[in-house]
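Hey, resending since the last one bounced:
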Amino acid sequence: YRARLTQFVYESASAMQPVFAAAKRNPKRVLFAEGEEARVLQAAQVAIDEKLARPVLVGRIDVINDRIEKLGLRLRLGENCDGVNVLNDARFREAWNEYYQLAKRDGVTRAQAMEDMRSRATLIAAILLRRGDADAMLCGTTGNYLEHLKFIRRAIGKRAGVHNFAAMQMLILPDRQLFICDTHVNVDPDAEQIAAMTLMAAEQVRQIGRAHV
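The structure tokens again:
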């Protein structure tokens, strides 16, 4: 088992090298939606150590700091990473107001908008991304996939000219990597949707260094 695990780690690291290289050339501000989670904090530490990104941690700042200390991490809010306090932060209040302006056309009240923002870290991160407070976001370490997608759909939406969402996974095999879509969003896609998601997947694969696609 240990030999297989070591081989997997080696192969996955090799497959991701083009992504890591591109990230190091131009580090981005990345929102970590579940910023209180231990494994998310550990991932943020790796991102800093490897100079891949500047993490922006979403959550209760006192909880984040407490868990950083308990885990023995070197994350320092305001120094090598940033935080968005969901209890008392100007960026949070601005994001809440923007979300309300978006959602009120669907019948969402101010009180419901606040409740959504307080309880949905993915929604907070998505609105902050929409506002330009960061360059990218990571979410979904807890909860239901479609629940996360619902708030991303509302806050960010689709790129111009794109008609449907799609998910893509990378399958690492001993001699190659396969990129597969869609296993999460489109249950029974038609031919037009399959063609569209294939083109989008090819574009993304090229961006992470697989130029032969």
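The longest strand covers residues 53-59.

Sorry for the duplicate.
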